[in-house]
Amino acid sequence: GWCLFPQSGYLHPDEFFQAPEVMAGDILNLQVYYPWEFLSSFPCRTVVFPLMTSGVTYWAIKSLQQLDICSSCINSYTLLVSPRLLFTIFSFILDYSVYRLAPFWQADLWKALVLLAGSYVTLVFYTRTFTNTLEGLLFALLMVLVSSGKSKGSSVEPTSSPLIGVITTAGFFNRPTFLAFALMPLLYWAGLIVESQKSIKTVINHFLKLILCACFTAIVFITADTFYFTSMSLDNLYSINKGSLFDVIAQLLEKMVVTPFNFLSYNLNPHNLALHGSHPRFTHFTVNGVMLFGILHILAICAGFKILKKYVHQFIWVRSCYHGLPGPLVHSEGNPTLLLFYFFPLAFLSLFSHQEPRFLIPLILPLVLFSASQNRAVKWKHLIVIFNLLGAFLFGCLHQGGLIPCLFHLEQLIHSPAPSDHPRHYTLLFAHTYMPPRFLLNIKKTDMHVEVIDMAGSGEETLCHTIEQQASNFTCSDSHIFVIIPGTVRGTITKCGVSFKNETFIFPHLSMEDPPQMPSLSSGNWRSQLGLYILQLHRDQ
């Protein structure tokens, strides 16, 4: 229901610019902004998952419109909601995973399902078109596969090996950071395989199946990306085949696109990461984990310290009696293993200076399983409910919450019937907002009457200079210039020496980059500070 409403909160530009924006340009032929990750000169993102998600939904609504089943299927609402609806349906993979895993890890099934369903991470992040969302779903499937043995871990289903290879490789191509999440489950699965199989031949057979399926999956992704980013056609392949076998192999290798390697090459450079923002190495532990999971993250840290203290104590004082400790990856020690599944990826991601909360959303599964055991979260249930209600409101409605309704409004305005035969020209200038996803304006690539200018967080002088420059070219009666700014910088525009008409106010909108001042919130001006303005430049100016 909330997905269809729809949610107005805008979490991060990547929820649009890593799938829907690109696919809307490719499949629906709309004017879009192609991000640097999808440029053919140095592609860093696979096109397979965008095609399988946003691409499929856009192809579906395009087909409905072409078949005259729905004459106006393509509009800003369907462009926004259809990919989100698919991700919302996919998010029930998490519920299924909890249903399968809770008995295996001695977690209370009902409490685990309630913790998952009530988390604002599930309600907000897992209904958005993030690659991190897909990463979390693949991580959940991997946990189900590695835990698919019998209750005592005495045997492992033979079908797990090929599927584990496919899931791991697909996750790696979606986001190479998936290996950080997959490593502990893979080691756990490998331990079960070695422990349960008496024949070395059977063990080797399992690993060979995994490797072969992983290689096959990689070939599929590389082939799809190579065809997409190099625009390789059948004619290109025919011309390549005219050479010798070695020439053919050399030319194919030269054209081959392996997006994860480009991703790693870019992100392992500290200078590149700094361009996207640098954070202290402890940000994931102290800020992002609490921001996403609240008290559950704190309880996991406390439990981790207690278990670590226990193991250290046993290692020092009891080792001589027991002739060595059992490893933490033994099934009977379910809780320590789940903590490893939670803290190892968190620690690995903390090695990089660029740390965003959404990087941790796959960890919700091991965390709710751990929290639902031994009644850890029961006494904090009121705090958990309040925390998730506030999180859902903040990130689902308030955060940059005016930008999507603003684009809906502008799309209706641009496509409204013109009073004259002359085409109208629109200039849309966005300042101090997140990047506006162009595809929501629903403008065909052949239409040249709409110009979008993204000023990002430009200073007062640059902003005023650009507005004055646009005003100086404002001579045609069919030209319309709109300036879109949050209420917190509304006063800046008044210093630019231009006048506006038809002021449209959208509420709510919270910009954390330009937060409202507390004195303004406590005064009668609070509503203006929490809104977004669409200002139309006065033509006589």
What's the structural blueprint in terms of helices and strands?
Layout: H1 14-17, H2 20-27, H3 48-66, H4 76-90, H5 92-104, H6 109-118, H7 120-124, H8 131-146, H9 160-174, H10 178-196, H11 200-230, H12 234-240, H13 245-255, H14 259-267, H15 270-275, H16 283-293, H17 295-317, H18 319-322, H19 334-349, H20 364-371, H21 381-398, H22 403-414, E1 425-430, E2 450-454, H23 460-472, E3 479-486, H24 490-493, E4 500-506, H25 518-522, H26 526-529, E5 532-537
GO molecular function: alpha-1,2-mannosyltransferase activity
EC number: 2.4.1.-
Pathway: Glycolipid biosynthesis; glycosylphosphatidylinositol-anchor biosynthesis
Share of β-strand residues = 5-15%
Instruction: State the share of residues found in helices, binned by percent.
Output: 55-70%
Rg from alpha-carbon coordinates: 26 Å
The number of helical segments is 26
Mean pLDDT: 87
Structural class: mainly alpha
Please report the distance between the alpha carbons of the first and last residues: 45 Å
Q: Which shape, going by the Cα principal axes?
A: globular
Q: Strand sequence of the main sheet, in spatial order? A: 2-1-3-5-4
What is the tally of beta strands? Answer: 5
